[in-house]
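Sample entry follows:

_____
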Amino acid sequence: MANIFDVAKYILNEIGEISTMKLQKLCYYSQVNSLKLKDKILFAEDFEAWANGPVCRALFNVHKGKFSLQAKDIPNSLLTNLSVEEKNVINETIETYGAYSGAELSAKTHSEDPWKDARNGIEASKNCSKKITKASIKRFYH
């Protein structure tokens, strides 16, 4: 199975330097697409319902303090190998969401139940580290 770093590096290799916000959301929607299209998780890491939408803390810890990332910013020591099927899921995500900005993708997640349910009434601008469960993702997007 892939990990979040495999997915992030693959996305960055495919589309080049992007904002950390956009990268986080493309990783999130890659997980969504895997659950929706293949009925299985793409990677084990979870997302939290942050004010600007879903954020994977493990990935955040790699890019903390940066506005944008390139593939070289993801250490190779964190990588496993992506299967052809996993790459296909990520490619589908890039095709569907790659043209959107990080802010547009953030706004999209704010309109969807997994992020809203995890925040459970917390104001949009307030900090929140509650997990967005894979079960809630699967329920909403299936």
The chain has a mean pLDDT of 95.
